[in-house]
Amino acid sequence: MEPDTNRTADPCVCIEPRRHPKMNSSSLLDPAPALRRPPGILAPRAKIMAHEFLGVTPRRWLEYLVAILVGNAIYYFSLVPHLPNALRHQGFRTDWGVLVDFAVCVAVYGLIRLGFSL
Q: What is the pTM of this model?
């Protein structure tokens, strides 16, 4: 019986590195040959992924910002003068006013998303 030339004395150490069964030497250089596209053409999702920050596109960040600013403006300039004291936000506290302000901002964001989907 011939000695196994691919193994050393330690059974955990192999001389040849193990490779994925579907990968050959050419796929090591180009890991996704089936997914290649002509130069300059990216997949639709790849274009978006290139510009995302924390998984969100700049357009979505702008929608969030506008919803927060407009929602806070509506809350503080239109609603606060007419709300009872219990629903007015007191600075640096968690109270019912924060919940009302949040609800207004979420409603504005919903209107923004609805407007873009039409």
A: 0.56
Q: Where are the domains of the chain?
A: 52-117
Cβ contact 90:97 at 8 Å: yes
Q: How far is CA 13 from CA 1, 5, 17, 79, in A?
A: 21, 12, 9, 71
Q: What is the mean pLDDT of residues 21-43?
A: 55
Contacts of 7 (CB under 8 A, 6+ apart): 13, 14, 15
Percent of the chain that is helix, strand, coil (3-state, to 5):
55, 5, 40
* pLDDT > 70 fraction of the chain, expressed in percent and rounded: 57
Q: Tokens 């193990």 sit at which residue? A: 18
